[in-house]
Amino acid sequence: MDRLISSARLMIVSDLDHTMVDHHDTENSSLLRFNALWESTYRHDSLLVFSTGRSPTLYKQLRKEKPMITPDITITSVGTEITYGKLMVPDHGWVQFLNQKWDKNIVIEETSKFPELTPQAETEQRAHKVSFYVKKENAKQVTEALSKVLEQRGLDVKIIYSGGVDLDILAKGAGKGQALAYLLEKFEKEGKLPANTLVCGDSGNDAELFSIPGVYGVMVSNAQEELLQWHAENAKDNPKILHASERCASGIIQAIGHFKLGPNLSPRDVSYIAQEHTVENATPGQEIVNFCLLSEKWRRGEIENSELIIAGLKAATHPTGVIILPSGVDHSMREYINIFREVYGDKQGKQFRIWVDNISATQISPDTWVVKFDKWELDGEERHGCVVTSVLRKDSEWFTLIHVHQTWVEQSGQIKWTI
Question: Could you say which EC number(s) this protein's record lists (predicted)?
């Protein structure tokens, strides 16, 4: 929460499965479109929050499976855990709040009396959440009976049924909506309330997000019946909630434009030629994203193999510039452009993608920035990552790359070529 010194221009609070992440999109196109938009346009002055029913264990597993960027805040286990940053530092104030009138042992004792309930994996049983599977036809009856029993035992609980199969019993004060309300209250006390907040979801456990006063909301086109029914019964006349016509992350991008919350044209939707024509208004973050996308398209053979592009790269690199590879080998940038020329189309027809994460630009002089970021390459089933520190200088309307230093995120599975 301390990354920004002032209020965020935009805070996006998004569910993951079937909202930010489309499990039916084998190319991860919509997720990668969002990643490029966020890192190029919003990372420097906005906040990204992932709010998921997954436990931290399953959340980290998803990050290994999908090309996800790092959020500023992570809300996991259906709003029972709040953590900050890449290291996922827990919010101890939230833990203390949830401890009120909650006893996990009593919940386990009483739920064991319901044969209709099948416990979920041990990783999904959390300090303030007990989770089960239940058939749809039994859900209503079990929920009502459990609510009465646990109330009689002196507990304040919340029972959420979602996805047509998942039943979560939470501490009363927990939930995706309550976790968001808690964060907004903290921001307000610090004088850093986001200018706009957009919540995004697809299922019943996301409904609470849409109930927070003042937020914009998007139900992605593939939203489940339970969320659409909640909307019809509770918010059908609310102009600040959109049922998008696009799936998952593409629906989130659509909502940004629909509500006029900021730019919503992803760099992945712009040709390289068009990007060159808009360089005058570019930021260091945009320059980094555009360069990595050029590298991806070049190696996939999706742009013309032309001397014009090579000449443009030479013009955008300093004559004495140096690039240090993760292996420790260094090259002059002009020499490295010749290597770039040789790998044209080497990933043609393959599932090869490049994305960047956690772009941070620090201005060290009126025309010079140090830009740090994580760069990832996905090549089929293999993933490789580098931590990159670069120095950019803006001469008139052009950015010039002066220095690049790369180190491995992971030592295993190193690749021979990276830029």
Answer: 3.1.3.24
